[in-house]
Amino acid sequence: MQKVEFDKLTSKSDWGRRFAVWKRWNEHGEFVTYTILPGQPLKVCEGRVSTQTNENAPEFTLEGDAIQIVLDPTQLKKNYTGPRQKTG
Fold this sequence. Notes:
The chain is α+β, with helices and mostly antiparallel strands and about 90 residues long. The chain contains two helices and six strands, in the order ααββββββ.
């Protein structure tokens, strides 16, 4: 996600709800930052997160609707990746 989306988050559960990620998929414990330098483009897809509905309990839904970025992690260069940080 871009920094503007990250800054909107208020908690781990807010992240899971807005980015439609079930706790069993990801514990939301860490994040890293990546710096894209001018003149060194990075191919990404950007779009709205879809709603996720629990198939076994349809009354449980993660709304989604945040803006997400999908990229090929093999394109990332280690020297532009920040250290792992706790989400807090």
